[in-house]
C-alpha cells in the first residue's frame, strides 16, 4: 500500500478543519448550553437550599412559638386556677360569714323571744300573784292589821330624813288647805288618832287640824294628804307598787 503525502496532508487539513468547525459550531454551543444548564441547576440548588434554610428557620420559629404558647397557656391556666381557688375561697368565706351571721341573728331572735316569753310569764305570774295576794289580804284585812299599819305609819313619820321633813314643812306652809285628810281602811281609835295628830304636828312644826275618814279601798292601813304630798302605809298602794315595779325589777 502506497501513501500519498498530498492526500495525507489534505486529510490532516480536513480533520483540523472539522475539529475547528466542531469546536466553533458544536462544542462551544453545547458547552455553553451545559454551562447554562449547570448554572441553572446550581441556582436551583442554591434557591432550594435557601428555601430549606428559610423553612428550617420558620420551623424553628414556629416550634419556639409553640413552646412559648404552651408556656403562656400553662401560665394562664395556673393563674386561672389560682384565681378560681381564690374566688372559691372568698365565696366560701363569705358564705360561712353569712351563715354565722344568720345563725347569730336566729340565736339572738330565739333568745329575745325566750326573754319575751320569760318576761311575759314573770309579769303574768306577778299579776296572778298580786291578784292572789290582794284576795288574800282582802280576806285577812282587819282592824288589828289596820291599827298595826297605823303604828308603822307613825314610826315612818318619825324616821323621815331631815331634808324630807323640811320639804314637807315648806309644802304645808305654802298650802292654805284647812286640814290634813287622813284616810284609813277601818275606823281608828281615839288614842291612835291622837298619836297620828302628834306625829303630824311634830313633822309640820305646828299644830295642824286633821280630818279622819274611812276608805275601804285601802284594804288596810293609813293614807294622809299633806298639801301636795301623800304619805301612806296601806296594803293597796304597797300591792300596786309590787305588781307594777316587780316586772321592771327583773330586767
TrEMBL record:
- Assigned keywords, A-Z: ATP synthesis, Cell membrane, CF(0), Coiled coil, Hydrogen ion transport, Ion transport, Membrane, Transmembrane, Transmembrane helix, Transport
Question: In terms of one coarse class, where is the protein primarily found?
Answer: membrane
Task: Write down the membrane topology.
Answer: Single-pass membrane protein
Give the record's family classification.
Answer: Belongs to the ATPase B chain family.
Among HAMAP family, the record links this protein to: ATP_synth_b_bprime (MF_01398)
Q: Which InterPro entries match?
A: ATP_synth_b/b'su_bac/chlpt, ATP_synthase_B_chain, ATPase_OSCP/dsu
The role this protein plays is: Component of the F(0) channel, it forms part of the peripheral stalk, linking F(1) to F(0). The b'-subunit is a diverged and duplicated form of b found in plants and photosynthetic bacteria.
Source organism, top-level taxon? Bacteria
Question: Gene encoding this polypeptide?
Answer: atpF
MF terms per GO, please? proton-transporting ATP synthase activity, rotational mechanism; proton-transporting ATPase activity, rotational mechanism
Listed GO CC annotations: endomembrane system; plasma membrane; proton-transporting ATP synthase complex
Protein's cellular compartments: Cell membrane; Endomembrane system
Q: What are the TM regions of this chain, as residue ranges?
A: 6-27
User: Where, if anywhere, are coiled coils annotated?
Assistant: 45-72
Protein name from the UniProt record: ATP synthase subunit b
PANTHER family (UniProt xref): ATP SYNTHASE SUBUNIT B', CHLOROPLASTIC
Q: How does it assemble?
A: F-type ATPases have 2 components, F(1) - the catalytic core - and F(0) - the membrane proton channel. F(1) has five subunits: alpha(3), beta(3), gamma(1), delta(1), epsilon(1). F(0) has three main subunits: a(1), b(2) and c(10-14). The alpha and beta chains form an alternating ring which encloses part of the gamma chain. F(1) is attached to F(0) by a central stalk formed by the gamma and epsilon chains, while a peripheral stalk is formed by the delta and b chains.
Amino acid at each position: 500500500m502506497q501513501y500519498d503525502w498530498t492526500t495525507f496532508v489534505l486529510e490532516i487539513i480536513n480533520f483540523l478543519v472539522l475539529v475547528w468547525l466542531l469546536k466553533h459550531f458544536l462544542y462551544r454551543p453545547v458547552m455553553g448550553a451545559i454551562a447554562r444548564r449547570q448554572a441553572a441547576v446550581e441556582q436551583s440548588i442554591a434557591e432550594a437550599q435557601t428555601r430549606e434554610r428559610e423553612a428550617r428557620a420558620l420551623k424553628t420559629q414556629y416550634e419556639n412559638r409553640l413552646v412559648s404558647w404552651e408556656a403562656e397557656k400553662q401560665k394562664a391556666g395556673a393563674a386561672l386556677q389560682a384565681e378560681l381557688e381564690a374566688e372559691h375561697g372568698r365565696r366560701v368565706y363569705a358564705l360561712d360569714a353569712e351563715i354565722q351571721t344568720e345563725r347569730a341573728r336566729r340565736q339572738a331572735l330565739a333568745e329575745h323571744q325566750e326573754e319575751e316569753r320569760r318576761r311575759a310569764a314573770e309579769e303574768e305570774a306577778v299579776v296572778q300573784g298580786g291578784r292572789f295576794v290582794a284576795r288574800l289580804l282582802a280576806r285577812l284585812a282587819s282592824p288589828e292589821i289596820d291599827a298595826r299599819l297605823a303604828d308603822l305609819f307613825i314610826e315612818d313619820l318619825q324616821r323621815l330624813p331631815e331634808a324630807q321633813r323640811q320639804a314637807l314643812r315648806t309644802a304645808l306652809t305654802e298650802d292654805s288647805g284647812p286640814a290634813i285628810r287622813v284616810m284609813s281602811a277601818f275606823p281608828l281609835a281615839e288614842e291612835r288618832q291622837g298619836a297620828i295628830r302628834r306625829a303630824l304636828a311634830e313633822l309640820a312644826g305646828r299644830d295642824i287640824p286633821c280630818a279622819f275618814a274611812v276608805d275601804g279601798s285601802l284594804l288596810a292601813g293609813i293614807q294622809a294628804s299633806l298639801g301636795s304630798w301623800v304619805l301612806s302605809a296601806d296594803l293597796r298602794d304597797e300591792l300596786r307598787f309590787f305588781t307594777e315595779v316587780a316586772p321592771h325589777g327583773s330586767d
